[in-house]
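Board notes, transcribed. Complex of a protein with biotin.
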Amino acid sequence: MTFPKRLHFKVVSSTNDYAKELVGEHSPIVVTADFQTFGRGRNKNVWEGAYGENVYFSLGLKHLPLKPIDEVAYLQGLGCLAVKATLEYIAKDVIFRLKYPNDIYVKCLDGIFRKISGVLVEHIFFGDLCEASVIGIGINVNQSEFDGELRSTASSLKNIGVIANVDYVVEQLQKNLFELLRLPKDKVFEFWKSELNILHTAIEVIGKEGIWEVNGFDNIGRLIVVNRATGVKIFVDNGDSIRYAIL
Ligand code: BTN
């Protein structure tokens, strides 16, 4: 794979949006920023962060030939794995966990797991086939204050006592992403499943009654879950919110 072109902006609406615009011309393309005015998370959530203190990163990849969804869905797992590898390299002895579908949690000094990073993978389709994908990654690095609900649910490297340079985190992240991209998709998928460690876990699915048990994954990374009381089977994907204990 060619070494990626990287564009850095002081302020951008969303690095994902910019990467989507550019990926047709340049692939791979990396877009980073000091600040996003319309940073986005999963399910139309807002991704907020302080100026210059965090990683706001997107990697755009054009697919030639175009690929069916089951060949690109693994990129979400790949993004999460790259973040975990990066954080583990920078903050040795700190415990990081993946939370389905797209979060990375850190074990904080008080023993509580809090979200330190989120991954937003977006695909551009031409009919049924995918022509490009953007792996968007936010990592909280030097931000120590969070607003509202995030005050109790979010953390950063700084908050666990690790001082890191944002650009250094970006470099390591990029290196880990490209190392994982060299692996066959099935291998990455297996690695993701094992890191998630969610099989046979009891979960709550927000908006659905009861306790559900994770019985497996399908070929596009959805969870196959079964209601423990009724035996009803459903799929849980990116659009769903689930709750379970991170151990
Ligand atoms: C989530 O937790 O739901 C995913 C958050 C992803 C945030 C990153 S920051 C860089 C890129 N640009 C965006 O607008 N979102 C992603």
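The first helix runs from residue 15 to 22. Helices lie at 15-22, 69-72, 75-90, 150-153, 166-181, 185-196.
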